[in-house]
Amino acid sequence: MARWVRSAPGSPLGFHVFARADGRALAHNIFLDGNTFGDSPSVGHNVFVADLSTGFVLNWRNTKMSYAVVYRTREFNAQIAPQLFGTVSLNVTF
Description:
Strand content: over 45%
Number of domains: 1
CATH topology: Outer membrane efflux proteins (OEP)
Oligomer: single chain
Structural class: mainly beta
Largest sheet: 4 strands, antiparallel
CATH class: Mainly Beta
Radius of gyration: 21 Å
């Protein structure tokens, strides 16, 4: 007889994967549009920007480490290609 072995609730070790979609609308970005109150260099920006990410998380007791790969759509008109970057975070709860 086959049995599935599961970790007990409250086990100190855990793992999960995730995917996320995030969008935002930008009215004014001072880094792209320049100074608000005077003349300064600027570039035309896209009003809507999206982030798509996927990654994994390792949990051990009160420590969590995560890694994600993020795909960000173009933020301004002269940008040649979308951005692709990774993020790593370490969280400790006490």
